[in-house]
Design goal:
Helix content of chain A: under 10%
Structural class of chain A: mainly beta
Radius of gyration of chain B: 13 Å
Oligomer: heterodimer
Helix content of chain B: under 10%
Radius of gyration of chain A: 13 Å
Order of helices and strands of chain B: EEEEEEEEEEE
Distance between the termini of chain A: 41 Å
């Protein structure tokens, strides 16, 4: 069985400050992990994925995430928030046959 | 995102109506999915098709009926829905059924309201 916990339902940051969106997972296998972003009235867009290669994964739009097996975490970060980053972010774990989605973290960016 | 299209984008239907949602992928993928996204809940996988064959049905009520006529098209036929079925319905596709290796690409969704 696998599960995903996104620790914050809502995060608010000022423009130009760092972003940290937290995700913890559990899995019976060595999982692959994804972060997706969903802007209002849009579908989900893949930001980045981890599949047992480098533990620090770089994605689109300046986002990156670090896989920490000992902490079962896959937190998403960005050094400097932009207004266009305001959206909902989903952490996702896969065990080969099915994706399990977190409940999402809504990111607000204050000008 | 533009690789997967969905129509209509918005749909309002009464509980006695019959309607269909359409999804088309232009990516040459072999697997397609229907998800339901409700407020405050994680995405729920409804159906999975691989090479036009249904491989998974996650205990979805029979008032939802999927159809996959070819690897590029996926439909969700709706009839006698309930108000709690109001949600965003997302279609996705991936190169292969193996979700460990292949990421899924999502369409923009159909916002369904059942009155």
């Amino acid at each position: 069985a696998q599960s995903v916990t996104q620790l914050d339902s809502h995060v608010s940051v000022s423009e130009g400050t760092p972003v940290l969106l937290r995700c913890n997972y559990s899995s019976s296998y060595s999982p692959s992990l994804f972060w997706y972003v969903q802007h209002p009235n849009k579908g989900l867009q893949l930001l980045l994925k981890y599949t047992s290669a480098a533990t620090l994964v770089k994605g689109i739009n300046g986002f990156e995430a670090e896989f920490k097996k000992s902490e079962t975490s896959f937190h998403l970060t960005k050094p400097s928030a932009h207004m266009s980053d305001a959206a909902e972010y989903f952490c996702v774990v896969s065990d080969r046959n099915q994706l399990t989605f977190g409940k999402g973290t809504k990111l607000s960016v204050i000008p | 995102e533009t690789g997967v299209t969905q129509t209509p984008r918005h749909l309002v239907m009464g509980m006695t109506n019959k309607k269909s949602l359409k999804c088309e992928q232009h990516l040459g993928h072999n697997a397609m999915y229907w998800y339901k996204q409700s407020a405050k809940k994680p995405l729920e996988l409804m159906f999975v098709y691989s090479l036009e064959e249904r491989v998974e049905n996650n205990s979805v009520p029979s008032r939802f009926s999927p159809e996959c006529p070819n690897s590029s098209h996926l439909f969700l036929h709706l009839h006698t829905l309930q108000p709690e079925d109001s949600a965003l319905y997302l279609c996705a596709s991936s190169q292969d059924r193996d979700t460990y290796t292949y990421e899924q690409y999502f369409g923009p969704g159909t916002r369904l309201t059942v009155t």
